Amino acid sequence: MAAGMELRASEWITVAYFAYLAGAAVVVPGIGRPQRRGVIGTAIAVVITVLSFAAFGTSAMLWRDLMPLVYILVGYRLPALLVTTTNPVLERRLLALDHRLGIGNLTAISGRAARTMIELLELAYLCCYPMVPIGFACLYLAGLHEESDRFWTAVLLAVFGCYGMLPWLPTRPPRAIEGEPTRSGGLTRGVNLRVLGVASIQLNTFPSGHAAASLATALAVGALLPLAGFLLGLLALAIAIGSVVGRYHYAADALTGMALAILGFVVSRWV
Fold it and tell me: Which of 37, 76, 86, 111 is the most exposed place for a label (fewest CB within 10 A)?
């Protein structure tokens, strides 16, 4: 490590996560050699990138503040290369829990809930993608640049905790098991499904990365900007509910994702 180089807490988390993925690529069974090499090579490239920006110190401050957005995207897609099949036993258990909680497939939910409410929850779920950048922008626009590391510590702990479980707990989203109803929703659901078709890894993250990232963002912002945090918190709750109602995630995904968000936030307060 170069003289004077000092990693932020969020950068240590990033380095640890990608080192973990490289290690997982070595031990996960049934993975082809190209996939193993791809994961290890990408993980090394990310670690080098983190160290390179840290070596520039304050001259790369803005880049260091923004790069976690890239790390999250790479950290989401990379574990999928370590999955060859899903876990049907876990899928059945997650579905059984949903049924015990009174959560059925989308056809049953649509029959009980108002169309407007379902549409609003679909819209909320669509907001999970810009949620983290919006939260980060709130801090920057408020002049709280020095809080970037604490913000990213909370968010990265939450999301990497979700993504990192994918090689060990791979499942399909409930909508892939239950099937998409012929008349399942309006325009917003169509947009959600198109976005997922293009951007998703087509696997379910347990815990839910969307629920974790959204709530961690709201908590991190709310610690400094209470009103913004409250509004983002309402949106985070709607995202978690919408993910279950729309059958993008199981109830257990959302609940454990929110628990990880709280844990990540608490840890970030100690940094």
Answer: 111
Distance CA(2)–CA(4), nearest Å, equals 6
Give dist(CA 40, CA 178) in Å, integer. Answer: 35
Q: Is residue 30 located within the same domain as residue 115?
A: no
Strand, helix or coil for residue 204: strand
105 and 238 in one domain? yes
What are 232-251's pLDDT values in tens digits? 999 999 999 999 999 999 99
- With tokens 């309006």, the residue in question is 186
Query: What is the number of structural domains in the chain?
Result: 2
**Domain end marker among 59, 84, 109:** 84
CA dist 219 and 213 (Å) reads 10
* Mean pLDDT, range 59-87, rounded to an integer: 95
The region, left, alpha or beta by phi > 0 then psi within -120 to 50, assigned to residue 6 is beta
Residue 106 banded pLDDT, cuts 50, 70, 90: low
DSSP string, 45-56: HHHHHHHHHHHH
Peptide bond preceding 68 in cis form (omega within 30 of 0): no
**Residue 189 corresponds to which tokens in the numbers above?**
């659901």
- Check whether 111 has a pLDDT greater than 60: no
State pLDDT tens for residues 142-172: 999 999 999 999 999 999 999 999 999 999 9
Q: 43 with 97, same domain?
A: no
- Under DSSP, the state recorded for 174 is H
Global pTM reads 0.92
Which residue range is the domain that position 189 belongs to?
86-270
Strand partners, 204: 171
User: Is the domain of 103 the same as that of 48?
Assistant: no
Rounded distance between C-alpha atoms, residue 73 and residue 232, angstroms:
21
Name residue 68's amino acid. Answer: P
